[in-house]
Amino acid sequence: MADPKGWKEEYRSKLVSEKEAAAQIKSGDTIIVPSVNSAPIDILNALAERKDELQNVRLASNLMTYPYAFLQGDYVGHITYFSGYLGPVERMFFSQGNIVANPMHLSKAQIALELQGADDAYVCEVTPPDDRGYMNHGPCGVAYGRYATNKCRKIIAQVNSKTPWIHGIENTIHVSEVDFIVEKDHDLVPVPEIPITDVEKKIGEHIAEMIPNGSTIQLGIGGIPNAVAYFLHEKKDLGVHAEILSDAVAELAELGVITGKYKTLYKDKISVGGLIIGTQRLFDFVDNNPTIMAMPIAMANHYDVIRLNDNLCSINSALTVDLTGQIASETIGHTPYSATGGQADFVRGAIAAKNGKSFIALNSTYQKKDGSLGSRIVLDFAPGTIVTTPRSDAMYIVTEYGVADLFMRSIPERVKAMISVAHPDFREDLERQAFEKGLLIPATMPANMKI
C-alpha cells in the first residue's frame, strides 16, 4: 500500500528494544503510566531492572494489576509509585513504603498530574497503527492519554497486537507523536469476575427493583455491582454512563438489556470514562465495537456531564456508613484501601440528573480476626477513617436488609432508617448509642413530632 505521508518509515525508525526504551527515563523524571491493563508491562519491567542507577523517579498511575518489582520497599528513593487509586496489588505492597497514596476525585486526575509536575514522559501501551498511522490507547489508556501525550516531553509506546481498539473520544495517537516504539506482545492482565455471595444477591435485588426500564446505569466492578447486574436481566432498554466498564455490563449488552435507546447523552452508546476492566471476554466485546464511547475520565466523571443523563441510577460501594449517612469507602482507619475514585462525582451527578438516583451498597457486617461479626453500620468511624461522600449527599443506603432513604432527611429520620438496615444483632445497641449521643430524640418529645 502506498505511504504518501511516510508514517511507515517513521514508525520503523523509532523502533527500539524495551531496554532501550527504559533507558530514556532519567533520574528525577516524573512519568505517567496508564492504569490497569493498558500499562506497558515489558517496558516497566525493564525500567525496574535499572533500580540501582536511578534516583527519585516518580511514576504516576492508578490501580496496578501486575506485581511490578518497583512496588517493593527496596525501591524507595529509586522508583516510587504514586497511586490515585489503590487496588488489591497496591494493598499487597503498601506496607513496604514505596507506594504513595494520592487521594483525588478521578475527574480531577489531570489537575493532580499537573501539580505533580508529571510531564517528563508518558510510557504507554497501544495497538498497532491503522492505515493512517494512528494507534489506539486501548482499554484504559484513554482515561488520560491525550492529556499525557500533549503534556509530556517524551512519548514511549509499547505496541501490543493483543490490545483491543476502543472507539470514542481522544483515544488515538499518531506515529508522528511518539518518540520511541517497542514492539512486544503480551496477554492483557485480566481482572476476573468476583463470585456473587448470597448477601450480595439480596443487596442486588433491592437495588434492581428500584431501577426502572429505560434508565441509564453506572456500575463499578466487584461482587455487589455484579449482583445488581444479575437482577437486571429482565429490564428493558437500559443505558450506561460510567467510569468503569466490566464484564457484567458487556453481558447485559449481549443479552439486549442495554440498548441506550432512551439515553439523553451519547444516545445508543455505552459511554465510559476510559477504564475497561475485566476478562478476555470483555476485551473481545469492546474490540472495534462502535457502540462503545470511551472518553477521558475527566470528561466522563465531570459533574456537568453526568447530570445530563436523565434517569441515571448510580450504584457504588462503601466500607462503612455511620448512623447519620456519612459514607466511608477508601480507608480502614488510617490504612488506605481504595480511593475516592468517582464515587462523589457520580453521587452528586445522579442527584442532579432528572429523575436520578444514587445508591451506596454494603454488606451489613464484616468478619473480625477472631471470627466474630462486626457491624458496618456504626455510630462513630474508627480514628483515621476518611469520609468519601458526605451525609448531605447520601440518598439510598442499601444492605441485605433493605434500603434506607436518607435524602434530605432529618438526623432522627436518618438514624432510624440506618438502624433498620443494620444486622439485627446490632440494632438494639445502635439504638442505645444513638439515644446516648442525642441522635435520637428522647421519649419526652412532643407526640406530634414526626421521626
List the helices and strands and how they pair.
Layout (H helix, E strand, L loop, with lengths): L6 H7 L4 H5 L7 E3 L8 H8 L8 E5 L17 E5 L4 H6 L5 E3 L7 H8 L4 E6 L7 E3 L1 H4 L3 H7 L2 E6 L12 E3 L5 E4 L14 H11 L7 E3 L4 H8 L8 E7 L1 H8 L15 E7 L3 H7 L5 E3 L2 H4 L2 H4 L5 E6 L2 E3 L4 E2 L2 E2 L2 E2 L6 H10 L4 E5 L3 E3 L5 E3 L1 E2 L17 E4 L2 E4 L5 H11 L2 H13 L15
Parallel strand pairs: 1-2, 1-5, 2-3, 3-4, 5-7, 7-9, 10-11, 10-14, 11-12, 12-13, 14-19, 15-22, 19-23
Antiparallel strand pairs: 6-8, 15-16, 17-18, 20-21, 23-24
Helix pairs in contact: 8-9, 15-16
**Counted beta strands:** 24
Share of helix, binned: 25-40%
Classified by CATH, the class of the largest domain is: Alpha Beta
Mean pLDDT: 94
**Any idea how many domains?**
2
Q: Main sheet, how many strands, which sense, barrel?
A: 8 strands, mixed
The number of helical elements comes to 16
Termini distance?
A: 75 Å
The appropriate CATH architecture of the largest domain is: 3-Layer(aba) Sandwich
Proportion of strand residues: 15-25%
Structural class: alpha/beta
The CATH superfamily of the largest domain is Acetyl-CoA hydrolase/transferase C-terminal domain
* CATH fold descriptor of the largest domain: Glutaconate Coenzyme A-transferase
Which segments are poorly predicted (pLDDT under 50) over 5 or more consecutive residues? none
Strand order of the largest sheet: 13-12-11-10-14-19-23-24
Shape: globular
Q: What's the Cα radius of gyration?
A: 23 Å
